[in-house]
Structures are given as structure tokens and as C-alpha cells.
Amino acid sequence: MRTLIFLIFIPLFTYSQTAELGSISTNQIVFDGNTGLDLNDLEETFINVAADLHFNIDGDDFLLLPGTIPSEGPPAPTILMKKENGEWNLHQIYDQVLMKAPRNIKIINENEFVIGDSGEHGNQPWLGNIWWGKITSSGIDWTKVNNDNEMGYFHGVSMGDLNNDNLIDFAGVPSTSADGVTWYTYGIFIQNNDGTFTRNNDFWTPENDMPFTIDIDNVLGDDRNEIITASYGGSSSGWNDDANRIEVYSYEENTQSYQLEFRSDQIDDFGQQVLGATSIISQDFNNDGIKDISVAREFFAGDIDGDGNDDEDLSFNSFEVWLSDGTGGFNLSYNNVFPFDELRFREFVVLDANQDGNLDIVLRTNGGTDYFSGDLSGNPDTYWDEIKRAITLNKSIWLGNGAGTFDFYNSEELRFEMENYAPSVINPFMRDDKLCFIGSQNTLQNNNGNLEIDMIDIEIDLNNSNLSYDSPRNSVLTIYPNPSSSFLKLSSDKEYDIELYDMIGNKLMALTGNFINIEHLSTATYIVKAIDKSNNKKLTFKIVKN
Questions:
Q1: Among residues 340, 319, 275, 276, which one has the least CA distance to residue 408?
Q2: Does residue 500 sit within a domain?
Q3: Phi, psi at residue 73, to the nearest 5°?
Q4: pTM of the entire structure?
Q5: Which of 46, 57, 58, 464 is deepest in the core (most CB within 10 A)?
Q6: Which domain holds residue 511?
Q7: Residues 145-183: tens digit of each pLDDT
Q8: 424 domain residue, yes or no
Q9: Cα(98)–Cα(107) distance, integer angstroms
Q10: What is the largest CA-CA distance in the chain?
């Protein structure tokens, strides 16, 4: 049993910084270590959350932080923060809404949402619950959708009417079987008239037996919701490139179930076969009145070169957009792949960041040199400490043009310096038609056992930008032509130590210079790592052999 005692908090100081590009404010909260609450759990909830939710009630800002724990142990309570007099403070603890590692939130309207807890800590199987939240004037009313024997690894979760009875139903993937034993399956929870739920997987049988993320939405422009999925590239029978495709299922009256309507066939164009899907969001990106599909992905390379450190330049995040063709099909319109050491994120949100009527993609960034941007001198003893004292948000903001393609915000440099350390995860939302980011960073646990948390709130008006911005980190080195059928050239005359890898981390080439012959390679996507011999700086490029 976990004993919860309400936290004691003391706003310690407020720091503010205003610039032409926007403003940043910081206030510190001190949590008393004598309260009886596990401060390690609390620290993880603040600094590693991916599935947060901002909302406004009667002009007041609230931030929901689902519980997260560092490793082993019972799940942690969910907390609600409120901004009062310019400072974020603890507002409420939901000690019955316990989670371990939530990744996704689906919002169905301004007052209702669902969170799936993946339980992704400690030994497998990872098991969590699906939580339905209703926002009220006093906070949040919670409903646990599943029973205790229906818990699952709910990395992906969604909600919507599946049986056309005007009641909200829920889906979570991956899941467990009804007996709570078999892990790689799925859970469909149909709402009954009395507000309870019945698990009924007869509504849908996926082509792949391990969908990893899911959405329930109307993407065909008909009168029913569809089920949209993507997997992590695997199944209960092992790795399968074909499994890692986007699938759309529509309802068929004759079978009274969901059947496959669309399956993508473009996995080899951008290395999707090794990037596992982590979330799906359905929105209308080209303003044609029919919703399209956006997907976030990730790939962890691990320690490929055997030096004892994870090879972040060979690990990736990506996002992509598939536009509806209006006839039940979808075509890839845009994708972008980011090496971890350049930009790392945990899911994304879709919103109109610059209020131009076109939807944009804003990343929940948590790492990389395109995010942390303090002192880049590269002193090996202090490098990471120093670069984490500032962040740059340009590469976190990808503005849509209304045609399904995107480019990062480059009118001016969105760089913010920190009083202490920058937030390890930054979470975007809109407030008063301005793009905002909220994050937190622990300062320290002092000798008295207290936990000090810096709450960081950034507000940017993207409509008031009149400066020219050219990122030096983007102009240092390029590789061309890309795609290429024969040769590649680095834009500098310097000599580099060059390594070329395939998309699963196998080293295929190693040379010195600035010129690469790829004539002998098969048509595919590859990774080129160039190391500047003068300063040992590494740059990574994705290249395509055609």
C-alpha cells in the first residue's frame, strides 16, 4: 500500500526574461521531503512526463502531469498544477489515479480526454490502465475504463464512438488477452448505457497482431469513425518489416466489424522499416475537409560500436504526414528524420502555432544540440552541463503550408537562457493565440531531503516576428546531391572521418576525405556520419541512394 500525504510547497523565487521574440518566466517550488511521498517518483513525474495536458478553466491555466516512476515500484499519483499570480503551483493530487509511464493523450473535445498508461518500467509484462478524464470547474472527474484483469501495455490509446450509439468507446494497444496472460494483443472497450464498459474485441481484428499506436477518428469523410493504427515493426512472432505500416479499418455492416480499408506500401522510402510508431494523430493538414494522418516514430540503436555508450547519432525520431486522396487511400506527403544527438522528442502536438489557418506540428522536445544550445565550446568536462543552460526552439516548431508539407520556424532565433538548467522535456500548447511551452527541471535534492523544481513557462507570438534568422548549426556542413545514384560530396574542403551505415546500424563504409562513392550500394536509405578531425565534432546526415 502507498501512503500519500499532501505535499508542502513553497514558491521560492520567480525569474522572468523578456525578449523581442517572446518571454520566459521561471518559479521554483520546494517539496518537503518529510511529507511521506516518494520524492524520486515526484521528480520523475515533473521532468520525464510525455503525456501532459494543458487546459483552461474560467481564465485559469492548469497543467496535468500523469504519474511517472524511475524504475521499479508501484505506480505514482497524477498531479494537477495551477498557474496563480504568474507562478505555477501544486493544485491537486489524484492519489487513486496511479500510473507508471504514460506516453499518449487523446483529446476528444475541450472537456474530455483519455490517457493510456504503458506501465513501461521494470520487468515485463508492462501493465497499466486506461483513464477517462472529464474536466470540470473544480478539476477532473476520473473513470477507469478497464477492469484489473484487462490491464495492458497501453502505449497507444484513443476514444470515439465505434458502434454508432452516441456513446464514447475506447481502444488501447498493445494489450493483454481477457485473461490477463497473453500480452501482444489489443483491447476494445464498448461503453454500456449505464456508463460501464465491456471488452469486446470482436469489433476489430487487426491484420498485424501487435499494433503499437491507435486512433479512432473519421478519416474517410463518411458517417462512421475508422480505426487507424501503426506498429513498432514487430509482432508476437518476431520482427516483420511489413508489420510497420499504417492501416485504416472501416466498419462493415454485413460483418458488424471493422475491416481493412487501406494499408500503406511506402515503407522503404525513408527507412520506416526500422522506426517504430509511437503515436498517431488525425487532422486535416491540407484544408480539404477530410482528415489526414500524422505519425511519430522512434528507433533506439543502443551501443553499436561497443564503446559503452548509446550511439545517439544512429538513433532517430521522425514524424510523417499522409494526405487523404478522398477515395479511401493515403499518400505520404512529408516526413522528417532526426538523429537523437541533433534533436530528440517524445511525441508531438498538432495546433495552429502562428494563427495562419494551417495546422502545424510542434514537438515535445527533450534533447539534442538543436534543442540544448548553451555554451557549445565543447569542453568535455562541462559540455553537457553548459549546453543545458539554454534552449533553442526553432527545430521544435514545424509550420504547415496548408498543402501537407512543413518547414521549421526560421524568421528569428527562438533561444532562451535559463537561470539554472533547461527543462528535460518541453511541452507545447496554445494560450491567448500564442504558442507556449511548459517544462520543469529539478535543481537538487538538498541535505534536508527537499526537492527543488524549476517550473519554466515560455510564451511566443509567432505573428510578431520581423527578424532574419540563419542557424549557424545548419549552415556549417551539408551533403549533396541527395538523393544520389553515384557520388556524394561534403560542402567543406576539410577532410573528415566518414562512416556510412544502413538503417539497422551496420557499418558499410569507412573512409577519410569529403567525397563518397555510393555506386555499389543498393537503392535504400543510409546514414552518413562525418567527424571533423580538427575539433572531433560529429555531424549526421540521412542520404538516399536512388
A1: 319
A2: yes
A3: 115, 170
A4: 0.83
A5: 46
A6: 474-546
A7: 999 989 988 999 999 999 999 999 999 998 766 555 566
A8: no
A9: 20
A10: 72
